[in-house]
Amino acid sequence: MSEDLKAIARRMWEDVWPNGDVDALRQILHPDTVNHEAPPGTPPGIDGVIHTMQWLRSAFSDQRYEIHDMIAEDDTVVVHLTHHGRHTGEFMGMPPTGRSFAYRHMHMMRFQDGLSIEHWAVRDDAAHMRQLQGAEVRAS
Predict the structure, then answer these.
(1) Are 80 and 68 in contact (CB under 8 A)?
(2) Any idea what the Cα angle at residue 62 is, between residues 35 and 60, rounded to 5°?
(3) pTM for the full model?
(4) Model confidence over 88-134: pLDDT tens digits?
(5) Which of 12, 66, 98, 138 has the most CB atoms around it within 10 Å of its CB?
């Protein structure tokens, strides 16, 4: 079962999220999923995740998620990855800069009946913002 859940998590980050595939997202997430890291004002459930995915796609192009490691235990998968992309749309009040970025994330997804029902994340948002502002930061 752990390998099946890891495959779902891999699909999320390598295919669904960078391509903005709402239909595939609905196949992976429980309708009542809880994203503990949702931006303020985000709708609850799967609609909030769709909102966040589309918001990020409006700000960043050429997105890809490079998975470094995945660990699965029981009903939970942890994913260590780097988010790569280019800033081509407004993001949090910052006009597009055209700058490329790469910064680290850790995601923890809890599954129920083969669907992700809870999500937590830790991101290096400071490194991300420094890169958007023109500072060179290496994702380590």
Answers:
(1) yes
(2) 55
(3) 0.91
(4) 999 999 999 999 999 999 999 999 999 999 999 999 999 999 999 99
(5) 12
